[in-house]
Amino acid sequence: MGLRVRTLSLRNTRILPLFASLLIANILQAVGTLMNSKWAMDRTVVSGNFCRAQGGIKQAGNVAMALWSFTLSLHVFMLLFSRVAITKTLSWLLLFTGWYMVGFVVVIGPAAFETPARGPYFGPTGYWCWITSAYPHQQFFLEYFLEFLSAFLSFFLYTAVLLRVRGNLIRTSGRWSLRFVPHGERWVLAIRRDAVDGCMMHVAARTVWYPVAYAVLIIPITITRFLSFSGVDVPFGATIFADFVFNLQGFVNVMLLLATRRFLPETDALPILTPRKHVSVSSSEALGITPFFLPPPRAATRETSSGVIFDASTTSGSLLEVMPDEKNDWTPSASHSWL
After folding, report:
1. pLDDT number for residue 172
2. Shortest CA distance to 267 belongs to which of 85, 21, 94, 20?
3. What's the pTM value of the predicted model, to 2 decimals?
4. Do residues 323 and 330 make contact, with C-beta atoms less than 8 angstroms apart?
5. CB 150 within 8 A of CB 69
């Protein structure tokens, strides 16, 4: 028995580079955390080039995580809600722009906001190096705000996709509306689903956990950091636990990816995402709900010695025979059939 290699089912959607960028962001977070081993061995955190490097790497990883989480959810929204697939050129442009923005956010802090009076932008902030407490607005707007904005927008987009493919969110006469039905009447929602909705509903139901998991994992570290900045003495165990939970993002993303990937159909088997004027009945596009029209009935008659025969070959291809003694109240003979 030969070895069968399974091809990647997401290659046609340009979503794999976004997943790769998300995992690279997790790697940056992991590198920034592993650099804490130096402070553990020295039993102190001091300013210097190593400290500034750790602060920049940690911020880059956190900002990149927020950015690519939102970009991934936006791409899924475009693909499943708006039915718009990005091109290869746009995909590369998106990757370049995204990482450029990550670098810009990291560099703009020490380049534009750092002053001698307030000290280094990146420096000791407790048990590791990050943006110092002398720059509270930068701490919030250049990281925490981006993280929570990403989690909120991603959750909103994934929820809209889930409602769309389930049939709860419909568009009628150019207006979007929500509808909910009792449990026993779910067929009302299912009847409006097309082939893409049916194939991708399971995917949408699971990808919605990406922003949920992201939001849950950043809550502990955010609480401990804000308490620390406000002057509250946070226990060492609470800080370590919050940092441990925060750095589980990479593990959780990989688990979600593996759990979701087995529900993904081959994209070659899905209907195309652009409208078509003519659809072949033998293609996969015809799997959805397709309206059709029957031509108006036409019947040709001809006289015979036994009576009148209505030739319906122009419509159904079957023959209806009227016997001479049944002209006033005729019925089809048993030798013929209705369509």
Report:
1. 73
2. 85
3. 0.68
4. yes
5. yes
